[in-house]
């Protein structure tokens, strides 16, 4: 088992939407990329084509903003995109479609509670712990792919969902899940899975909120 190559995992957030630009909560609303979001997706795809040629599989949330970002990468890499509804963003329940200001006015103090407590859910929504569980199930199933060791899998999803998955994979205590936040549009997380001395698979963080260099954006 010591000779098993590492499995590398990239978690890419989708490009900008109009809702992102206006600080409106989307949750599982099926919004589209803005013009800037399309450009961001194309730049991210070009970067992946230059730097990440060992990607052999792309799995995306089925929501359009993520799927469109994933398809841009798939075109560059020549890989078909698989879609999985378990990679959707957090269900924000009654908050979906509302601005931060509207939520703070209608639900005083609750957004702060949600930001700091991974076991708390917006009215009618789901907790970060629940999001982490469904996201983690996708990764656990991908571990059965014998072609993964020594190569990279790209998951394209959403900021909150990616943060929850990252905390789960790294075995962060639930009380500290919210330490991962603020993932920017088309920023990504780099993780690798290796066999530990005890024979178990362990996940290791390489980067969080990684972004393109200015010289890449200017090309």
From TrEMBL:
One GO MF term attached to the UniProt entry: hydrolase activity
A Pfam family assignment: His_Phos_1
Catalytic EC class: hydrolase
Keywords per UniProt: Hydrolase
EC number: 3.1.3.-
The keyword Hydrolase appears for this protein: yes
Coiled coil ranges: none
Transmembrane segments: none
Domain of life: Bacteria
Record-given protein name: Histidine phosphatase family protein
């Amino acid at each position: 088992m010591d000779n098993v190559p590492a499995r590398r995992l990239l978690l890419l957030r989708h490009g900008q939407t109009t809702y992102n630009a206006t600080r409106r909560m989307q949750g599982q609303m099926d919004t589209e990329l803005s013009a800037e979001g399309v450009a961001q997706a194309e730049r991210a795809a070009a970067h992946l084509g230059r730097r990440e040629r060992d990607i052999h599989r792309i799995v995306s949330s089925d929501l359009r903003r993520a799927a469109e970002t994933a398809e841009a990468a798939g075109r560059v890499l020549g890989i078909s995109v698989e879609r999985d509804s378990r990679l959707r963003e957090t269900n924000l329940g009654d908050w979906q479609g509302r601005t931060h200001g509207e939520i703070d006015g209608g639900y005083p103090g609750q957004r702060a509670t949600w930001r700091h407590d991974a076991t708390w859910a917006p009215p009618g929504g789901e907790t970060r712990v629940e999001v982490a569980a469904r996201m983690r199930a996708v990764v656990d199933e991908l571990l059965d792919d014998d072609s993964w060791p020594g190569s990279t899998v790209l998951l394209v999803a959403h900021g909150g969902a990616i943060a929850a998955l990252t905390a789960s994979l790294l075995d962060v205590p639930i009380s500290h899940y919210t330490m991962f936040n603020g993932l920017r549009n088309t920023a990504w997380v780099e993780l690798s899975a290796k066999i530990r001395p005890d024979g178990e698979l362990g996940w290791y963080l390489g980067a969080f909120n990684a972004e393109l260099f200015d010289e890449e954006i200017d090309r």
